[in-house]
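Re: How this chain folds, sequence and tokenised backbone to follow

Filed under: protein folding, tokenised backbone structure, sequence and structure records.

Contents: The amino acid chain and a row of whole-number tokens, matched residue for residue.

Body of memo: The sequence and its backbone structure tokens, given next.
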Amino acid sequence: MISNCSDKTLLVAEDDRTTRLILRSYLEDAGYRVVDASTGHRIFQLLQEFSVDLLILDIHLSDGNCLDWLPGIREYTAAPIIMLSSEEALTSKITSFDRGADDFVVKPCHADELLAHIRARLKVPVTSGLKPKSTVNGWLLDTEQQQFFTPNGTSCDLTPAEYRLMQLLVQAEGKPIARQRLCEALKNASYIPTPRAIDIKVARIRKKLEEHHGSAVALMTVHGIGYRWYCE
């Protein structure tokens, strides 16, 4: 195992089971943690469950085309995305980059070549165009680590979807955000949240804030509208 890779989690999406298992084996042997998917639906599930450092996505999966999902994936993560394809068509490459991918590798490729692409991409700092850190009333929103910290420095252990919701509320600087707006922000190709689903996520976030800080009073309900994060 390579120790300097051991803290990196990669998401691999490939619909061919044999290829997926071979990829996973190569990457784990190189020292990476790996979560894998065979469908676009599973990609979005994993992005809600794990904080990934890099994604390797085959363009064609059993339930659709990854190029169509790239904008939605970018709603969840700013991590580097490497597209895999047996097609060398220039249009596929251009579309990949235009929709949010960072790299494009043509299959079949040698494992060492793919590992070189991964190492190169992980050297590039992940940025999202947002302030790296925002502090409100002592609470810290860290967009680089995609974590939310209490005033005493404890991480609230939010899922990626919960973090995204808190990111919207905190960066609204005290202004209320409608439930429907939150639904739109969390929507992707395989998940269309309802206002009730937003209420459930907020309830879970409040529980975590109470567990880690003893209070969730800053996450306020604005009756008839939605939610806001209290700013003094």
Remarks:
- Residues 125-130 have pLDDT under 50 and may be disordered.
- Residues 91 and 123 are 27 Å apart (CA to CA).
- The chain is about 40% helix and 20% strand.
- The longest strand covers residues 9-13.
